[in-house]
Amino acid sequence: MFAPHRKTMLTTPQAIATLVNGRVQGDPLRPLAGLATLQAAGPDQVSFLSNPRYRAQLGTTRAGCVIVSDRVLPLLDSECAQASLVVVDDPYLAYARLSQWWAGQRRAAVRTGVHPSAVVEPGARLHPSASVGPLCHVGANAVIEAGAVIGPHCVIGDEAVVGANSRLSASVSLLWGCRIGERAVVHPGVVIGADGFGFAPHAGQWVKIEQLGAVRIGHDVEIGANTCIDRGALEDTVIEDGVKLDNLIQIGHNVHIGRGSAMAGCVGIAGSATIGQRCTVGGGAIVLGHLSLADDVHISAATVVTRSIHKPGQYSGVFPFDDNAAWEKNAATLRQLHQMRDRLRQLEKKIPGT
């Protein structure tokens, strides 16, 4: 949480350059008090230029400091003469590190210990430097490691583990036997370890298959608000180190997501799918169950992956939108493609030399 009434925090271009391993061009001691876009920044704020396409905005920005690439610097001329520049190899990475530092300075200090309204069951082990917020429930034999922060209304199930320096926001549920590694960031409403969708059909009804696995989450993972990760049926659902998940994502039971992969909002990964390392999945895309994606596969937004992908690369499968009448005609034609193909083959056989 942030402390909005704290005194405004100041820094300088020189301090920023030291933080992001850059060099200053211009006034190194200009006082700076915030971050903003090039369009919205004022004289006491820092902005950045990572895409040369937005270079024209430098001519109108009022920013007091701009983080730029050393590759772009020769092209700037006098466009940004009023601002101090912090020159780096990768402005977007520098901005990310600066944003982390800024948030860390403004974030309210965490009170260690257990809030009086929290319930901690017998056998739970809480490190003295951990923080458990109001109205939390920590189950029997759960473990909360050093520096971990458990926000209000969280549920930590029996024998669950929260790794060192991980931060769970409000109303997170980490259910029985599930584990989160170190330095995780888990946003509000996340549910980790709910039952996977498993039922056996019998006589017109569905008989529940108990989900006896758990969820294992590695280090440095971030999970967006209201994302759900189901526990495994027998073996565990696994999220490896460095995975980043956006809001409202559904991860089915026994899914395995490789190190360093990232997924945008509303992605659905069906049960027992395996996602390789360093993969990306665009918003609203779906990967069907029991499929495998190789390392370095990138799925475009709204794509439905219906077969395994064994080679790295970019894959897309979005049917173009149109006005409804045209779309219906195109969809009707699409349903007849196999018949048209057969007719074309028959015609080709009648043409000499084909």
> Can you tell me the CATH superfamily of the largest domain?
Hexapeptide repeat proteins
Strand order of the largest sheet: 6-9-12-15-18-23-26-29-32-35-37
* Strands, total number: 37
Mass-distribution shape: flat
Low-confidence stretches: 1-7
* CATH C-level class of the largest domain: Mainly Beta
Task: Explain what the structure shows.
Helices cover 14% and strands 27% of the residues. The strands form 5 sheets. An 11-stranded parallel beta sheet has the order 6-9-12-15-18-23-26-29-32-35-37, with no helix packed on it. A 10-stranded parallel beta sheet has the order 7-10-13-16-19-24-27-30-33-36, with no helix packed on it. Strands 8-11-14-17-22-25-28-31-34 form a 9-stranded parallel beta sheet, with no helix packed on it. Residues 1-7 have low confidence and may be disordered. It folds into 3 domains: 13-106, MurE/MurF, N-terminal domain (Udp-n-acetylmuramoylalanyl-d-glutamate--2,6- Diaminopimelate Ligase, Chain: A, domain 1, 3-Layer(aba) Sandwich); 113-315, 3 Solenoid (UDP N-Acetylglucosamine Acyltransferase, domain 1); 323-354. The chain is α/β, with parallel strands linked by helices. It starts with 12 loop residues before the first helix and ends with a helix.
Layout of strands and helices, then pairs:
Layout: H1 13-20, E1 23-25, E2 34-35, E3 45-48, E4 65-69, E5 84-88, H2 91-106, E6 113-114, E7 119-120, E8 125-126, E9 131-132, E10 137-138, E11 143-144, E12 149-150, E13 155-156, E14 161-162, E15 167-168, E16 173-174, E17 179-180, E18 185-186, E19 191-194, E20 199-202, E21 205-208, E22 215-217, E23 222-223, E24 228-230, E25 237-239, E26 244-245, E27 250-251, E28 256-257, E29 262-263, E30 268-269, E31 274-275, E32 280-281, E33 286-287, E34 292-293, E35 297-299, E36 304-305, E37 313-315, H3 324-335, H4 337-350
